[in-house]
Every structure is written in structure tokens, then in C-alpha cells.
Design brief:
This is ABC transporter ATP-binding protein. The protein has 6 helices and 10 strands. By secondary structure, it is an alpha/beta fold.
Amino acid sequence: MFVQIENLVYQYKNASQPTIKNFSLQLDQGEIIAILGESGSGKSTVLRLIAGLEIPKSGMIVINGKRMVDDRTFLPPEKRGIGMVFQDYALFPHMTVEQNIKFGLRHMKVKQKQERLNEVLELVNLSDYKKRYPYELSGGQQQRVALARALAPAPSLLLFDEPFSNLDANLQMRIRDELKEILKQTNSTSIFVTHDQEDAAALADRTIFLEKGAVKNLKVKSLKAHSLI
């Protein structure tokens, strides 16, 4: 098993109940998993726990044979080898596309950085845009830059937090198809959270449903609404 998450429990400081309750998930290498749930169900908190941005009360995370967290271990985010694409893309506005992507490659030599930059720009079809700033790009192009930046260091796992929420419907459909093709081409193991069933069905190999911090054994097709708000 490439990713093994067992019995994660997390409770915010002033909360009366745990936000995440015994969350478990296993992924094979190259698999794309969607976590579907309503707002407040704990989807983004799960991603933050996996990324190391929050510390669980209990539980275990192992990625590619490397223990990230358990009762005696906690690796900080920068040592986990995880890439994350945020809902608002989190691009540096004062940096060009090239500079944004190279930001995560600080430990590479100059020649290696340039080679990797060229590889990921070609992968996301933005080779002609490397000197542009984020404000000069469309929403879809900004998302592809965010993806290229996350892919550049060759992470063991990619995390996506509501990756299509800032795109209009037509662009959303096209971008998610492009994203799936890129993830499969690079054999990237990925988890993304969404409240939209259509996104989950189009992009994920498998979907789980999260309700009040716990995994529910519900088939997505049995849910009536196309999206959860």
C-alpha cells in the first residue's frame, strides 16, 4: 500500500467534539481519490493533517514506506515530500510563472532547475508563459501554474483542496479532464476534496464520502444532489 492512513483523530482547540473521527484511507501508487462532503464535514482538515499543517490527536500516516506521524513521530511539512494545490492557487503575485515554479526547487543545481522547469511547463502547456505574472493569466492558466509548481519537486503525494471552485462551468470541465490526464501521465498519487459529485466522478478512480469527520459507506450515485453545499 503506497499511502496508509489509520484512525486519525483531530479536535480543534475550542471545539466540543472531534472534527475528524477515526479517519482511515489506503491508496495504491498512481491512484486518484476524491473525498466528497458538505462544507464543514472535515475534508480540508484531512488534507491539512496529511500535509503536516495540523497535528492529530492520534492516528498514523505512512507514505511510500515513510512514517509521517504516529504517537511518537511527527514530520514537519517540508520533510514530507507532499505537494499541495490550494483553492486560491496561492501563487506569489510578485513572481513570474518561472519564479513561482522554481520556488520549490531551491535545493537543485541551476541546470537541474531549468531542466525541471522546462519539463513541467511543457507538461501543463505553458512553455510560452514562463515570463508572465499571475495577474496576466486566466484562472485556468493560474491553476496549471499551481499544478506545475506542486509537481516540480516530484512529490510522493499530491493534495488538492477544491481545485475547481474558482473556475466557471465550461472551464471547469476542460481543466479537470486535463488534470486527470496529467496525473495519470505522471503516475501521481493524489487526493482531492470537493463538494461536487461531477468533479469526483470525472477525476477520481475512487470516491469516499465524509460526514461530520467520519467516513460513511455511501455510494455517490445514491445521493440525489449533484453538489453538496
